[in-house]
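It is worth pausing here to work through a concrete case rather than discussing structure prediction in the abstract. The textbook approach is simple: state the sequence, then state the predicted structure, then interpret. We follow exactly that order.
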Amino acid sequence: VKIGSSELHANKKIIQKAIVCSELDKKDHLTKVLQEVWDAIPAPANGKKEMSRTIIFCNKKRTVDYITTQLKRDYWPVVAIHGDKAQYE
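Step two, the predicted structure:
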């Protein structure tokens, strides 16, 4: 089955990871992956590292809010986006 054009290709810079783990271990695995990404960023001349945009997909809106809260507690700069958020959020 062929769907779409054979000329289209995914961006080679996009990295996808799938980690199978228990529900209780998800936050720890996510934090570990984010830290690995952060550690791989070279320090610029001005010494201020900056992480590229990273998207984390969740299957439930409440999971989005939970993960956002947990990452904020660990001082990660995060925002949540889903349909129950007000426009200003």
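Step three, interpretation. The radius of gyration is 16 Å. The chain has a mean pLDDT of 85.
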